Each structure stands twice: as structure tokens, then as C-alpha cells.
């Protein structure tokens, strides 16, 4: 069963946003991202935790190898928003990149 094409890709089409990813000195790639904004959540002991930076989820099928310092332009209902990629890691299944973002494009 191809989990990416049967489950993940349709979910990204529903909940994601069109974006372009441009590594430093590289060529832009069109892809779909699911943004996660900083939010407050309680852990098991009831202590509030705040996710400090916006995050983007990107399918490995669309981006084989992210790099720090890339530009990510995301089309949102209110217009285009630019980010710079900071750190990244694969999810537990190895099929989605979890990328920490900084608002604003690279200088």
C-alpha cells in the first residue's frame, strides 16, 4: 500500500497551502506545505508549553533533502508569506519533513 499517494497526498491537498521552496543559490520547487503556527498546549502535568517557531510539514515525495537557510514562500488566503528554513527532521515514519521556520525570507 502506497501510504503517501493514498493518504498523505490527499490530506496535504485538503489542509495544505501552495508554496515554493528555494535553496540558497538553487532553483525553486513548487510544493504543498501544512503550516503549524506557534500555539500553547498543556503537557501531562498541566504545564503550558509554547511552540516557539512556526513549523512547516512537507512530504518527502515533494522535497527530497531540505537545507537550512532556504526560502519558503507560502500562498495563504491573505497573500504570500515568506519564511527562512532553520532546522529540520523527518517524522517517525520518514515520510514528512518537519521544518522549523523563521518569518521573513533570507537576507
Summarize the structure.
The chain is 12% helix and 48% strand.
Task: Note down, in words, how this protein is organized.
- 12% of the residues lie in helices and 48% in strands.
- It has 1 helix and 8 strands; from the N terminus they run αββββββββ.
- It has one helix at 3-15; strands spanning 17-22, 29-36, 40-42, 48-50, 55-59, 71-76, 79-90, 96-103.
- A 6-stranded antiparallel barrel has the order 1-2-5-8-7-6. Strands 3-4 form a two-stranded antiparallel ribbon.
- It is globular and about 45 Å long.
The oligomeric state of the chains shown is single chain
How many helices? 1
- The proportion of strand residues reads over 45%
Query: Which structural class do the helices and strands define?
Result: mainly beta
- Cα-atom Rg, whole angstroms? 14 Å
Strand order of the largest sheet: 1-2-5-8-7-6
Mean pLDDT metric? 88
| Percentage of residues in helical conformation | 10-25%
Topology as H/E string?
HEEEEEEEE
Terminus-to-terminus distance:
43 Å
Enumerate the spans where pLDDT stays under 50 for 5 or more consecutive residues.
none
Number of strands: 8
Q: How is the biggest beta sheet arranged? A: 6 strands, antiparallel, barrel
User: What is the approximate shape?
Assistant: globular
